[in-house]
Amino acid sequence: QVQLVESGGGLVQPGGSLRLSCAASGSLFSIYTMGWYRQTAGAQRELVAQITSNSNTNYADSVKGRFTISRDNAKNTVYLQMNSLKPEDTAVYYCNAVINLQYWGQGTQVTVSS
To answer: Could you tell me where the beta strands, DSSP code E, fall in the chain?
Structure first.
C-alpha cells in the first residue's frame, strides 16, 4: 500500500506560479512512475505530467513549456512547478504512483483567477 499526500494548491492570479508537492510512503519510491493528473467538474481526469524512475518526463500539450515535474528520491517526493498559470489550469490536481498497481492522493485544489 502506497500513501500519497499532496500539498501546495491554492488561489493564484493568471500568470502566477505554484509548486505542488506529493510525499509518498514506502521504501520503493525510487522505482515508482509518478504523475500529476487534474480533473474539473464533469470532466475526465487527465494526465498533466509524468516522470519515470529514470526521470524521463512526459507532459500534456497544454502545459508544455509552463509546467515542470521533478522528483527527489531522498525525500520520497515529487513536485510540479507550474508557471504562467491560466484560468483553464483551474482543477483539482491529483498525485499518482504506479508500481504494478495505481495509487492516488486525495487531491489539491488549484484555482487561477483574478
So the answer is: 4-7, 10-12, 18-24, 33-39, 46-51, 57-59, 67-72, 77-82, 91-99, 101-104, 108-112
Closest of 16, 29, 45, 17 to residue 107, by C-alpha: 45
50, 33 Cβ separation under 8 angstroms = yes
Residue 91 has pLDDT above 90, yes or no: yes
26, three cell numbers: 514506502
Of 24, 62, 15, 65, nearest to 43 by C-alpha is: 62
* Over residues 9-25, mean pLDDT: 97
pLDDT digits (tens, 9 = 90+) for 27-49: 889 889 999 999 999 999 999 99
Q: How far apart are CA 67 and CA 27, in angstroms?
A: 27
Query: What pLDDT does 108 receive?
Result: 97
